[in-house]
Amino acid sequence: MNPALKKTDAPDAQKIAETFARRWVDSNIRGYNENKEMFEKYDALHSGQYGGGGEYTVQSGFGWSNGVALSLINSFYINNDNNNIKYRKHIRR
């Protein structure tokens, strides 16, 4: 959903995409800083906390979650004209 919102010509939709992306990445960064690992899923209501439910216990280092985080960082932090400088400290090149 986020890529579709970002690609629209509607500024409100683009802002929603950026807000969702930054919340997701912030939650990933907070979770990693607190637990020293990335999780498969995150709790939408509690930033940095891993999610629950599903067929098995939460996994750490789950590939698709890591890939989504990297993609959002690339789209909304590195390649974004409105980039907030405070996030650069989290990006290694």
Describe the structure.
GO terms for molecular function: alpha,alpha-trehalase activity. This is Trehalase. It catalyses: alpha,alpha-trehalose + H2O = alpha-D-glucose + beta-D-glucose. This protein is mainly alpha-helical. Helix content is 51%, strand content 0%. It is built from three helices and no strands. It has helices at 2-7, 11-35, 63-78. It is elongated and about 40 Å long. The chain starts with a helix and ends in a 15-residue tail after the last helix.
* First-residue to last-residue Cα separation: 27 Å
In terms of quaternary structure, the protein is: single chain
| Helix amount | 40-55%
| CA-atom Rg in angstroms | 14 Å
- What percentage of the residues does DSSP assign to strands (E)? under 5%
Strand segment count: 0
Mean pLDDT: 82
- Main sheet? none
Q: What is the H/E string?
A: HHH
The coarse silhouette is elongated
Number of helices: 3
Q: What would you call the structural class?
A: mainly alpha
Enzyme class: hydrolase
GO biological process, one term: trehalose catabolic process
Family: Belongs to the glycosyl hydrolase 37 family.
InterPro entries: 6-hairpin_glycosidase_sf, 6hp_glycosidase-like_sf, Glyco_hydro_37
